[in-house]
Amino acid sequence: MWVWILFIALIIFFLALDLGVFNKHEHVIKSKEAAIWTAIWVSVALAFSGVIYWLFSSGMVENPTNLTPNKAVLKYITGYLIELSLSIDNVFVIAVIFSSFKIPALYQHRVLFWGILGAIVFRGLMIFFGVALITKFEWIIYVFGLFLLWTAYKMLKGDDEDFNPKDSWVFKQIRRVYPITSTMHGHDFFIKKRGLNAATPLFVALVVIELTDVLFALDSIPAILAITADPFIVFSSNILAILGLRSMYFLISRMLAKFRFINYSLVVILAFVGLKMLFSHQIELPEWLSLAVISVSLLAGIGASLLIPAKEEEGNEE
User: Can you tell me which family this protein belongs to (predicted)?
Assistant: First the structure.
């Protein structure tokens, strides 16, 4: 139990350091700063694999799935890469939300900070119940597998391309129960207007991002549970990937048009993980194969996006 407490305390320390020291004064996050922080968070996450090895070799963490230290490290890295790759799709949606509510770049980090804090709580609960379900009802893994295949098919069709946050059910419900201002008021989430409390677009964007992350977690949590049902590996890899999401957003949100083929990478990853779940009792794939498929799919999507010129888009612009 103390391992969990120390890990959560470490995450709280990182978040406090982020908001209270490095981003104490609000400023626009430039690409160079975002690249540095992305590299830092990825390095921290990969370095944590050494902690995973030590914990599982020393027996200082519960090991309900009887993993060897080497297997625990491979499962952790594979899970982390799955969460990181699926987070890229989240970046696209966050960019649309910020654009729709006209959130200035100056305050976007503040929204993402509180959004990620809430995401840690929600994902922790979802991981807890997800692991409990798989442990108690083995057949649930087939449900998760089919759900991931359906998500991959939906993503391949591109059903979510016309997503408009202001047309969403969430936004309509917030507007119905709470007054919303049409203009920004600095970094405030709430203001007093004519004697009444009112939410600013900043708060609305935060709520929509928070609930959108819950929807993304419905894909990512089953995906990582296909790799391992060890609760500490699932939780730590998931949370460390989320922590890097903010800097990743500021790094690649300005280059969204270049990553045209990344969705196909995510389709392959989700389909592979879904099939892995469906055939988990018939075929046992080696850990390195899962890691290789995820890594190659992600690199292929990024490489194709950067190397293949966007001829059609250029023709349409002319």
Answer: Belongs to the TerC family.
